[in-house]
Write a structure and sequence with these properties.
300 residues; 6-stranded parallel beta sheet
Length: 300
């Protein structure tokens, strides 16, 4: 809670710094001192944002968001790195490297909003079929990002979790991943989920295998196999299903991502290529999400 309040206080100060003088800085400090729970803070945050003028697209969208109706879980298909590089006459790996800033923007933006879970489709099972040079380069980028961003993730109170067949990653990548997870183990803020060596169909197959393995160990199949039991066998056990799926680069497909979990997710697609994705796009996606009517198959 303390880290959450400090982070939001700093974000408020950053927003207000270019607008007003010392009086609102003092107001932010006093607000943090007297608050006792997050819901009150978010209520006050909305009031404070009302005084921020719409002199930037990011601030304008941020001021329009209802902080009491945020999606619990946002998932992102980070697409377009290769096309971004090709349009600039650069090697594909340069596009992947350029996507690093977009990852930071998405993570920090989600933390600022108060999103509980952020899942990034980082490396799919199908990506293993790319050229050995590109795959090797992607693993090096993953390792570099984990090493260099872990301090900032720690500062932002972010937890780290993975889904997918992580055992297929190179040993060095797995070790750095585990070291980063251990480094962040004491955090209790937003859960950052990296989908690595992940495929939605493979996850479902693996869930069935786990059910059968438990049956073998116990000597009998479970008395009842239902959605609740099956969900517990998935890699995402314990996490809420995504409320919002964001896809960059304008493609209209799910690409074997979270096939079970996306049953009632709202889709938000942008033509922006992943390296150009910024927190303003995340804010816009959340704002548009809040304007939709989610019926879950029911009528109203």
């Amino acid at each position: 809670m303390k880290d959450f309040l400090l982070l939001l206080r700093q974000r408020l100060v950053d927003l207000l710094d270019v607008v007003v003088g010392k009086r609102l800085h003092v107001l932010v400090e006093l607000a943090v001192l007297v608050l006792r729970d997050r819901s009150i803070f978010l209520f006050l945050l909305q009031d404070l944002l009302d005084v921020v003028p719409s002199d930037s697209e990011e601030q304008s969208v941020l001021r329009a968001i209802d902080f009491s109706r945020l999606p619990r879980h946002v998932a992102i298909i980070m697409d377009g790195n290769g096309r971004w590089a090709e349009r600039r006459g650069l090697p594909r790996l340069m596009g992947h490297r350029a996507g690093r800033r977009a990852v930071r923007e998405a993570v920090e933006g989600a933390v600022e909003l108060g999103i509980r879970v952020l899942t990034l489709y980082t490396f799919s099972l199908e990506n293993w079929d790319r050229g050995a040079r590109e795959v090797s380069g992607l693993m090096r980028i993953l390792e570099q990002v984990l090493r260099e961003e872990r301090a900032e993730l720690k500062k932002n109170n972010v937890q780290l979790r993975t889904i997918g067949r992580v055992d297929l990653l190179p040993e060095k990548s797995r070790q750095i991943l585990e070291d980063t997870r251990a480094y962040l183990a004491g955090n209790d803020g937003m859960i950052l989920v990296l989908a690595l060596s992940y495929g939605g169909r493979a996850e479902i197959v693996d869930a069935v295998r786990r059910i059968l393995e438990e049956a073998r160990v116990n000597g009998a199949l479970p008395a009842r196999v239902d959605e609740e039991l099956f969900a517990r066998m998935l890699d995402t056990d314990g996490l809420p299903d995504p409320d919002l799926l964001i896809r960059t680069s304008g493609e209209l497909r799910v690409s074997n991502f979270l096939l079970w979990q996306l049953a009632y997710a709202e889709f938000w697609v942008t033509d922006v290529l992943w390296p150009d994705f910024r927190r303003k796009h995340l804010y816009q996606a959340v704002y548009d999400f809040q304007r939709r009517s989610r019926r879950f198959g029911r009528t109203r």
